[in-house]
Structures are given as C-alpha cells and as structure tokens.
C-alpha cells in the first residue's frame, strides 16, 4: 500500500479531522497511490495520517458514498475498481449532465469569472505538470466551472462521476486533449455555451472510447507495456 504524505495533510487547514482524512484518502485514490482493488489496512493508514481509527472509519464511510471505497464490516475496506461496463455507464451519465452544466455555466459568466476559468484551463494544459498535478488542475477547473451553472445537486453528482473515472486516466497517464481545452477557452471568452457543450460532448466520447479500449487491451494482455 502506498504512503500518504502526513505533512501535506496537516497543511490543508481542515474544518475537522474527519474532513482532512477524507481529503487525504480521496487524493491518494485519485492519484493512484491507493490503487483500484487495493485492500486498505486501517491501522496502517491511521498511523500514517496520525489519527485515531474513529475519524478514519468516518472518512471511509464518506468515500463509500462517493463510490471510491467498498466497506465490509467483517472483512475490511477496499478501493473500488471499475470494469468496462461501469466505465460505459458512468460516461452515459456524464454525457447526460455535463454538457447541460457546461452550457449554463459558460453562458452566464461575467468577465472576472471568465478570466479565472481561462487561467485555470491553461494551467491544466501545462506540459511540465506531473500526472497527479494535471489531475488536480482538472478537478479545480471543472469544479469552478460547474459551480457557476446554478445546479448544485447536478454539479455534486458530476464531481463524483468524474472522480471515479479520472483515477483510471491518472493511472494510465493519459494525454489530455489540449485542442479541445483551447476550444472551450474560446467559448468561455465569447460566452458561447452551446458550442462549449458540443465540444465537451465530443471530448467525453473520445475519453470514454480511449479508456474502454485501454481496459480491453489490458484485460487481453495487449496493453501491458502501454502508459
């Protein structure tokens, strides 16, 4: 089981111990430090994070609700894993909800928000970012963007769906479509929400096909040397 940086956890200024443990474990899962299917040794995690078992168990319950952890009262806890059918279902839901939020958010942006979002988008396309940094940059951009759609429950659902599949993209070190991101930035600047939604839909379909193909190749032994 991979290690978690305790110093980074303590610097995050949480509202509660449970929240900081949840964030630390979530980031470790999304970055592939804790891999899909990995059993979580709770005593070891508690020692690494410098907390008792109670906030750790509460954090694991939160992550179970998010779909990132599976709990069994007698057998312990595991990081959830997805198969091709799960990936397809998640992308079906994302294709239903994300373009709607994209259009609503982009159409209603003011100048300050548009400038901020373009800067965040440019940041996630920087070539020198590590896989983990690129993942966090994407989470920040899309979180900020969809928060401006005025659809709180839909935005929360999108974040959970993205987290479940983004950890697989991070593990695969997937190259992101800079061209699509640049097109979305142009739409943000012009407030063309309808076009941004179309670009996003195509981008999601490409990401879905890319990931399911890699998973199929890996299961058949063809993708063992691919990054």
What are the main properties of this structure?
227 residues; mainly alpha; Arc Repressor Mutant, subunit A; Four Helix Bundle (Hemerythrin (Met), subunit A)
Written account of the structure:
By secondary structure, the chain is mainly alpha-helical. It has two domains: 74 residues, Arc Repressor Mutant, subunit A (Orthogonal Bundle); 136 residues, GntR ligand-binding domain-like (Four Helix Bundle (Hemerythrin (Met), subunit A), Up-down Bundle). The protein is 68% helix and 4% strand. The chain is built from ten helices and three strands, in the order ααβααββαααααα. Helix 6 runs antiparallel to helix 9, helix 7 runs antiparallel to helix 8 and helix 9 packs antiparallel against helix 10.
Mean pLDDT: 87
Order of helices and strands: HHEHHEEHHHHHH
Please report the number of helical segments: 10
Q: Give the CATH superfamily of the largest domain.
A: GntR ligand-binding domain-like
Could you say what the CATH architecture of the largest domain is?
Up-down Bundle
CATH topology of the largest domain: Four Helix Bundle (Hemerythrin (Met), subunit A)
**How does the overall form come out from the CA principal axes?**
globular
Q: What's the number of structural domains?
A: 2
Percentage of β-strand residues:
under 5%
